[in-house]
Amino acid sequence: MDDLYRPLGLDSPHRAWRLPAVRLDRLVLMLAVGGILGGSAAISLDRPVLRQVDVFAEQAEREAAAEMAAALPSPPEPAVKAAPLQPLGRSSAPEDSADPNLPTVSYPPNLSGDYGRLVPVRDPGSLRQAPGEADKVDEALTEPGEEGPLPVRAADGRRPFDVYQAEPASDRGTRIAIVVGGLGISQTGTMRAVEQLPPAVTLAFAAAGNSLDRWMRQARRSGHELLLQLPMEPTGYPDVSPGAHTLTAKDAAGRRWRDLDWSLGRLTNYVGVMNYMGARLTGDAEAMPALATELARRGLLYLDDGTSARSLARDAAKQAGAVYAGADILLDAQQDPDSIRRRLDALERTARAGGRAIGVASAFESSIATLGAWIREAEGRGIVIVPVSALADDPEAR
């Protein structure tokens, strides 16, 4: 038995069992490899079983569902459709929804539709020329004429009436507009009117006057608003005549504007025209509406001097959509300071009764001196002197 156990080393009772010697780096490597193998096995065992998919069967099911949906009746449309989305900066509200008491403007100009309603409200005073540029001609408001540039609406809708207005000192209180005509005929009288009358007085230049462009620039730099006096056919024409290039009732009714264009081209930077004589034309039921329509097309004011009781100018302007103003009192029918002052006092009473009044005069020396003194006194009594455009009826003002 001893020989049997000795080769196995079992016959030595004091010999201990030992692990074989292993290097430390090999041991770390063996542990890392074992960790990787164990993790891979765990992931493989935990992986879900993939579902077997029949692609052709699923496609057939989708096609069958689509055919069934097409066979069903369509649901009724809602009674009110949702409004389409508007581009940024545009309004979906129609123009009619704007407040009718507020002025409106289309911007950008000369466009329509939603884009043309980008800006719903504006201040009409913003169209006026800056005071420092009041003697500059706005080329957008002119078109070529044989005698000179003719006034016309700009492509963006602005009118000479809008741009060449003089701004009133106040829109409140008892307001009076005074128009002094006949300028350009007498150089001395013109100089007195431009230099001595307050800026709020409106100056009217005769189409047959001299040096009109020079006087226009000086008057505008002084702050005055301007009108052009238009020679129009009076009763008794041609024995009674306002001069060359008179616009006759026959030509106006036939819309022959050669003489009108001659007068309009003699001056620039004016808000409108006033009649010089013209009782025959203003009382003609065909001529006056035609003239009012032409003035409205050009964006000009028409001031009736009030000397003819038969004038149809107010109704004609209203029908044509033209800007209109009518004088209440002729101030200097008599060239006497006392008479002029009495007429001015009557003008003040008219203004206090109705809140406003318009008086017209000519550039005589006595008229200019009396007007200047009376205006200073009237302003001390609370009367506000304003340009004639401030008292005009403008159908385009909203």
Explained architecture:
This protein is of the alpha/beta class and 398 residues long. The protein has a domain at 127-391: Alpha-Beta Barrel (TIM Barrel). Helices cover 35% and strands 13% of the residues. The protein has 13 helices and 11 strands. It has helices at 2-5, 24-46, 55-71, 160-163, 187-196, 212-221, 249-253, 258-264, 279-282, 287-298, 313-320, 337-354, 365-380; strands at residues 142-143, 150-151, 174-183, 202-206, 226-232, 272-277, 301-304, 323-326, 329-330, 356-362, 383-385. Strands 3, 4, 5, 6, 7, 8, 9, 10 and 11 form a 9-stranded parallel β-sheet that branches. The chain has a two-stranded antiparallel sheet with strand order 1-2. Strand 1 and strand 2 (150-151) form a beta hairpin. Helix 10 crosses helix 11 (313-320) and helix 12 (337-354) crosses helix 13. It is elongated and about 135 Å long. The model is unreliable at 78-103 and 113-122 (pLDDT under 50). Residues 67-155 are annotated as: Disordered. This is Divergent polysaccharide deacetylase family protein.
Primary descriptors:
398 residues, alpha/beta, TIM Barrel, two-stranded antiparallel ribbon, 13 helices, elongated
